Amino acid sequence: MMISDIKSRPIYRDLAPEPTASGHLLVVEGETLTPALLAAFASAFGPVAPRLHIWLVGGPQDVGAHPGRLWRLGSLADVEDSLSCASRGFGIGDRLYVSGTEPFLWRVAEAAGHVGFASGQIQLHHAGSLRRRVWCTHCHSITDDVTTHIADCAGCGRHLLVRDHFSRRLGAFMGVMVDAEAPGQVPAREEVFA
Amino acid sequence: MTLAFKPDETFRGDYTYRNSDAAILRFPFPFPEDRYMYSVNIEPHTRSGPTDVFRRPFDVDEHYIAECRDKAITLERDPSRCQALPHMMLAQWDTLELLMESLAADYPAHFALIKEGDDFGSRWTWINRPLGIEQSFIFGNPDTLPCEPFEYITRQAQGDFAICDQRDNNLFMDAGMVTSQADWSLAFDVGMSFMEWHGPVPLAHQAGVFERALKFLLMLRLGQPMRRLNWTMTINPRLDTSPESYPEWGPDRASLTPDNIGRKLHLRVELQTLWRLPRSNAILFPIRCYLASLDELARVPKWGARLHRVLSTLPPELVDYKGLTRFLPTALDWLAAHDDGRELPIGIEPGIATLTPR
After folding, report:
1. Residue B208's pLDDT band (boundaries 50, 70, 90)?
2. Active-site residue flag, B342
3. What mean pLDDT comes out for the span B212-216?
4. Predicted ipTM?
5. Nearest to A6 among B200, B317, B326 (CB)
6. What per-residue confidence (pLDDT) applies to A2?
7. Closest to A80 measured CA to CA, from A31, A121, A123, A114
C-alpha cells in the first residue's frame, strides 16, 4: 500500500489575527514555544494586544515579554474545561488561534466547536514535533506520539502502516495493518514524523 | 415481479454465493469501451437502463435475504458500522419513507406499506414478507420502532447507505450504514466533508473531478435522482471488505492461482445513486454492491473480452488504490483466453438474451 498525496491532510498556516474581531484567544502548547515563535506572535498580535488573552498550556516557567494577558494552564484537559466554563462565553465576533502539535490543535478545535466556535472563527498553526496520533482501523484504539511510518497499535498490537488520511474529528491519522496480506512481512521502521 | 430468493447462500466462511443465469445477464457491467476511462460518469436514475438492475429506484434481487442476514452478522460483530450524528433524525425519517414507499410500489408481492396519513404522527404499518416482518409504528416517533429509523430500514435493504448533510456549500457524511464497503471506514470518515472523505482517491483531485462533482451535487433536486457506477475487484464473494476486517480478508489476495482465479476473483460493482431528501434537504447516497466471478462474467463473451482490454489499460495508481497489484497479471493471463481480438460494440449491455449452458 502506498502513502499517497492524500487530500484530507490539513494545511496549516501562520496565524494572522483579524483586526476587527472583538476578542482574541491564543492557545499555545507550551513545550513547542520557542523564542523565535514568541517573537513571531508578538509581532503578529501586537496590533490586537489590548483584546488578546494567551492560554499557555504547560511549558516554560519564564516566558518573558509577550503581548496581551497571559494565563497558565496545566494540561489539555484544563483547556477543555476552561473553554466550557468561560463565564462570559464566546461570541461570533471572537477568534481562536491555536499553536502546537497536530493532536493538540485538533483537541482544542474540537472543544471549541462544542462551545459554539464555527470553523471560520478558528485558525490553527502547527508548531513543534510532527509526531502523530494514530487511529487503528481494526480495533479503533488511539496510539499517541507516533514518529515512525509503521507503529504498534496500543490496543491490539498489530503493526500499523500510518497513512496520510486524517480525521479532524478524531485528530488522528488512519493506521492499517501493514502485513495483513503477507503475515509477518513487516518492513523496517523509519523515523519520519520526528 | 416475484423473485426466487436464495436464502441460504453465504458471503463468508464457505462462500456459497453464486449468480443464476438471469442474475448474470442483468449484472451492471461497468465498462462501455475497451479503454479505461476515469470520469464521474453520472446520469439521471430513471426507470430505464442497459440492464434490469437500473430499472427500479432500489433494486432487489435473488440475494436479498442472504445479504440482509450477512449485514446482521457484520453489525453484530461491529456495531460502529451504523452511525448517525444527533442532528440527522429528520434525514433518518426521510430515508425510511423513501425506501418503504419505493419497495412497496415496485415489489408489491414482497413488501407493503399501509399509511393512515402522510405526516409525522400518522400510524404506518410495514410488511416485509421475505424477512417475515410486520411492524406498526408512528411515523416521526423513533420510540415506536425497535431501533432508530435509519438503522431499521437499512437493515432490510441490500447495500450500503450514507446520508450527507448539506451546509456551508459542502456535504458532510453525518450518517451511514456501511457493511459491504470497498475498504473505507465509516467510523473514521463519519462527520467528514466531501473533499476529506475522498482524500485517499488518486488522480481525480488533480483533474478537478471532485470540485465539479460537489458543485453538481449541491444542486441535486428532489424527485430527480442520479446514478453512477464504480468498481473494484474482490477475492471471494465477500460483502464485508472493510478496513476493520482487513486482517481477515487481506491474506486472500495472495491466494489466487491460474487454476482458482476464475472462481475466486470477483468484479465488484457499486451502483451508486443520489437522492435529495424532502424534509432534511440532506442527500441520501445508497451504494449497492454487485458481485460476479470471472467465470460468471466470461459466460457473456462481450464482457470477458472487454474486461481483458480495460484491465490492460488501467493506470498504475489505480491498480494500487484498488488493491489489484498482487494478482492483476494472473487475472490478465486468465482473461486473455476469453479475448479473440474482435471488435466489440460500445455500451455495457450483454448483447445476448440467454447464456450458453456450461
Report:
1. confident
2. no
3. 91
4. 0.87
5. B200
6. 37
7. A114
Domain with CATH 3.40.50.80 in chain A: 23-126
Cα dist from A86 to A70, A96, A110, B233, whole Å: 15, 13, 16, 53
> Of all residues in chain B, what percent carry a pLDDT higher than 90?
88
Q: Are B172 and B165 in contact (CB under 8 A)?
A: yes
Which residues of chain A does B247 touch, with a Cβ-Cβ cutoff of 8 Å?
A: 138, 158, 177, 180
Q: How far apart are CA A17 and CA B307, in angstroms?
A: 56
- Tell me whether residues A7 and B202 touch, CB distance under 8 A: no
Tell me the three cell numbers of residue A190.
523509519
B/e letters for B120-138, b = 16+ CB within 10 Å, e = fewer, are: eeeebebbbebeeeeeebe
CA distance B284 to B92: 10
Q: Which residues of A touch B243 (CB under 8 A)?
A: 137-138, 174, 176
Interface of B with A in 240-259 (CB under 8 A): 243-247, 250-251, 253-254
pLDDT at A4 over 60: no
What mean pLDDT, rounded, does chain B reach?
95
Strand (E) or helix (H) holding A136: strand A132-136
- pLDDT tens-digit series, residues B76-115: 999 999 999 999 999 999 999 999 999 999 999 999 999 9
pLDDT one-digit tens code per residue, A127-151: 999 999 999 999 999 999 999 999 9
Residue by residue, DSSP assigns B290-354 as EEEEHHHHTTSHHHHHHHHHHHHT--HHHHHHTT-TTTHHHHHHHHHTT-------SSSS-S-SS
Those residues whose C-beta lies under 8 Å from the C-beta of residue A88, and which sit 6 or more positions away, are none
* Sign of the torsion formed by the C-alpha atoms of B212, B214, B218 and B220: positive
Over residues B42-56, mean pLDDT: 95
Between chains, do B197 and A6 touch, taking CB under 8 Å as contact? no
SS (H, E, C) A61-116: CCCCCCCCEEEEECCHHHHHHHHHHCCCCCCCCEEEEEEECHHHHHHHHHHHHHCC
Pairing of strands A172-177, A132-136: parallel
CA distance A48 to A24: 8
SS3 A29: strand
Quick check: B326 contacting A, CB < 8 Å? yes
CA distance A67 to chain B (A): 34
What is the CATH number assigned to the segment(s) A23-126? 3.40.50.80
